[in-house]
Amino acid sequence: MSTLLPLLQAADAQRTALLAQLHDENTNAYRLFHGSVEGRDGLTIDRYGDVLLIQTFHTPLSDEEHQTILDHYAPLGLHAVYNDRSGSNSRIGNPLPEAELAEAQQPRVISELGVNYHFEARHDGQDPWLFLDLRAGRRRVMQLAEGKSVLNLFAYTGGVGVAAAKAGASFVMNVDFAESSLRVARGNAKLNTLATRPRCVQSDFFPAIRQLSGLGQAKMVRGKKMPPFQPLEARQFDLVFLDPPRYAKSPFGVVDLINDYAALFKPSLLATAEGGIIICCNNVAQVDADAWLDQLKRSAEKAGRTVRDVEWISPEADFPSFDGKPPLKMVLLHV
């Protein structure tokens, strides 16, 4: 018997209650196997609608492992797609036969908490268009969004923004640098019946948030002309969602979740209305949650704002952790 099979069986048993709940909530996208915790480091197996998405990030699957996975999940009747991302930069490195590639590139619609999203197992980018570990964050936003204005920063394909609009937000703004991601976000909005259609702003984070927060973005910085950027009026939002990548650099600034989260947090906080909510995410495993929260509180104090209450949002049970300290940290601050 394959050494992987009992690990898959154990993962199934751990998810019985959660999957029943998710299906009742009109959700057909979730993680079936989280290898870093469940026994095969670097292997993830996700369900996205009728697709079984298998991904490896450290070492490729052996032929035996691949067949074990296909056999184990065969009763679900899903189309299996394998993306080997164990090479440099996590780029998909394994070619697929023509028929399998066509199936992987087939446009599909998946559902989470009653919200519909576009999905393709292979597309021009690398990452799936909906990050499943962020479901708990989207769930919390849906619980809070009714009647509120919502700012979704580093919006990617707009999942948080569409979820907020579906839950009755009065106004939603998605901000992301990549027009290709916002194109998917606009498509996601069209898949759903929404009282308000999210506004998608294609912009580097820094000029967008500096303008929204009232700090302003100069066209010349230290004698250097800045690239063109979209003008935005200053305004504050009832709910701000901040989910930056680990590291990114542009002429406007540096995104660095380890060394300078405050550079992202302060202007985002200033764009949050008094008495509002800001939800901050940090996906760097080595960052200690308590130390990070202390940094956020100190940054808020320096900005003249008070953190009135704190709520941790934990990824759901399809993303288990050894010690209750998952790599993805989400904290909700009442400010």
TrEMBL record:
Keywords: Methyltransferase, S-adenosyl-L-methionine, Transferase. GO terms for molecular function: methyltransferase activity. GO terms for biological process: methylation. It comes from the Bacteria. The keyword Methyltransferase applies. Residues 42-332 form the S-adenosylmethionine-dependent methyltransferase domain. The keyword Amino-acid biosynthesis does not apply. This is 23S rRNA (Cytosine1962-C5)-methyltransferase. It comes from Vogesella indigofera. The lineage of its organism: Bacteria, Pseudomonadati, Pseudomonadota, Betaproteobacteria, Neisseriales.
